[in-house]
Amino acid sequence: MAKQILKTHDLEFCTGPVFTGQQKLSYNGLDLAFSRYDAYWREMRKICLWILSPGNKGYVNENVVEQLSYLKAVVKETMRLQPTAPLLIPRETTKCKIDGYEIPAKTLVYVNAWVVGRDSEAWENPNEFNPDRFLGSSIDFKGQDFELIPFGSGRRICPGLDMGIATVELSLANLLHKFDWEMPAGMRREDIDIDHVLPGITTHRRDPLCLMPKPYAVMGNSE
Ligand code: HEM
């Protein structure tokens, strides 16, 4: 079958279907497609523009991920609500006084990163999953912004931070780029529970996430 190559120009006008792997283009539905999932479509468009770029080898690389501001915001928001190690690594205090209380030396302290990420004094609508809160915000998880500490902070901050975050962002970007994701037959969005986790040193979902990957029909190419 003949190969259809999508031109960069088409991307300026295309609506949802082309991104979901179907071979259909629409030129007049811009408002529709970009209204509800605005940020999502913008990210997909960046990936698509990259696919069309010369020298593309078929995988999303680190340079592209750097431009995916919404994907980065999604990862931050996920780590805010469900930090991988909710209680970080325990610490021992020196002798000190906090709020009038004498704290003896070598007191064991747990920092609850899960609660910190949901502190209503630091976050608006703290329990709501809203990646937009990070767009245009300088808040990062590098240990300087104490309202977001999924990698800890201070001397014992995670030394694998850069490697960990690069792995998460790259994997997620490539999983989105290579596959179209569907829910199993009969399952609805409301059936996905992202709130309940099991207690433990690291966070585990109570209900396993079950999604079905469908290989992506890359950008209108049909063979
Ligand atoms: C998304 C991935 C990762 C997350 C969310 C994560 C999270 C954490 C957290 C919360 C801590 C405790 C920090 C504290 O108490 O202040 C920690 C410590 C640590 N992490 Fe990671 N980590 C990740 C990836 C990695 C990787 C890839 C490596 C190694 C290649 C690594 C190695 C370590 C080590 C050695 C410590 C102990 C540091 C110390 O106690 O001095 N982590 N990590």
Radius of gyration: 21 Å
Question: How big a fraction of the residues is strand?
Answer: 5-15%
Give the low-pLDDT segments: 1-37, 218-223
- Count of domains: 2
Distance between the termini: 5 Å
Trace the largest sheet across and list its strands: 1-4
State the shape.
globular
- How do the helices and strands follow one another from N- to C-terminus? HHHHHHEEEEHHEEEE
The amount of helix comes to 25-40%
Number of helices: 8
Decide which structural class fits the backbone: alpha+beta
Bound molecules: protoporphyrin IX containing FE
Count of strand segments = 8
Seen as an oligomer or otherwise, the chain set is: single chain
Rounded average pLDDT: 79
Largest sheet, strands/sense/barrel: 2 strands, antiparallel
Task: Write a structural description.
The chain is α+β, with helices and mostly antiparallel strands. The protein has two domains: 1-67 and 162-185 and 210-223, no CATH class; 71-159, no CATH class. It is 32% helix and 10% strand. It contains eight helices and eight strands, in the order H-H-H-H-H-H-E-E-E-E-H-H-E-E-E-E. It has a two-stranded antiparallel sheet. A two-stranded antiparallel ribbon has the order 2-3. The chain has a two-stranded antiparallel ribbon with strand order 5-8. The protein is globular, with a radius of gyration of 21 Å. Mean pLDDT is 79; it is low at 1-37 and 218-223. The structure holds protoporphyrin IX containing FE. Residues 84-85, 88-89, 150-153, 156-160, 163-164, 168 line the site of protoporphyrin IX containing FE.
